[in-house]
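Async update (no meeting this week)

Hi team, since we skipped the sync, here's where things stand on the single-chain job. The sequence we agreed to prioritize is pasted below, unchanged from the tracker. I ran it this morning and attached the output directly underneath so nobody has to dig for it. Comments welcome in thread, and please keep replies under the output.
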Amino acid sequence: MANTDSSRTKRRDTDDKRPDIWVGYGKLVKLFRERAGLTQQALGEALGYSCELVASVEQGRRPAKSTFEESTRFLERLAGEA
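Output:
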C-alpha cells in the first residue's frame, strides 16, 4: 500500500509561483531551527534579522541573502548537537 502521509506527499499548488529553491531552502532552515530548539524570534535575534524575515525565508516567500545563508550555517551545527 502506498504511503499516504500528507506531510510527505504534499504537493504545491500549480498557481504557486515561489521558486522551488526558495521553498526547499526554507524547509531546511525551519528543520534546522526546530532541531536546535529555537523559535523564529530567537533565531532572528541571534542572526540580527527580524522574525518576519526568518518567517519569509522559511515559507519561501523571500530568497535568503548570502549574509543570511552564512548566518544560518550555525543552525546546521546546532541541529547536529541537539
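Quick observations from my side:
The radius of gyration is 14 Å.
The first helix runs from residue 6 to 9.
Reply here if anything looks off.
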